[in-house]
Amino acid sequence: MPFRRVSRQVIATGAFLSFDRMEIESPDGQRAERFMLSHPGAVAFLPIDGPDALLVSQYRGPVDRDLLEVPAGKLEPDDTDLREAVRRECVEEVGMNPGVIKPLGHMFTSGGITDERIDLFWVEQLEPVALQPDGIEEEHAVVVRFPVADLERLVGSGELTDGKSIATIARYLFQHRA
Description:
The protein has helices at residues 82-94, 136-139, 151-156, 163-175; strands spanning 4-13, 18-25, 31-38, 42-49, 52-60, 65-69, 72-74, 96-108, 117-128, 142-147. By secondary structure, the chain is an alpha+beta fold. It folds into 2 domains: 4-38, no CATH class; 42-175, Alpha-Beta Complex (Nucleoside Triphosphate Pyrophosphohydrolase), CATH 3.90.79.
């Protein structure tokens, strides 16, 4: 018999998150209280524009600094098509409409504390469109071009510290090795 969640109670809610108390039960019947941050999920993607990858440098309040990241965004309640969520976020964050959207799998950001699942993609055949930032961080974000050939160095050097970005780029590089 596997572990199972016995109960879950919302303790507090925010704009799109909730903080929940859970009771879990082990295979031998022991019970324990755990807490989690409930998240609606997100998409993250690596835009490829010819020989370059487009990353975004933007301020992140929880770490109080700018982070270099792949573009990403949380899912909205009416997001039933992950590719459309990627398309929306690509327009919002890099001002590009992708012609091709390819999946790279998914990841859990920190399974011990949150249920946040991020579906990963890479996009190409980018068509410039009007940038449509959503929020003050995106209004001040900067799109940074890196040669695709430099992505492995960027991840390996520690210059890139954002988990979803490391995972997205690593999956992309793994799929595109010669």
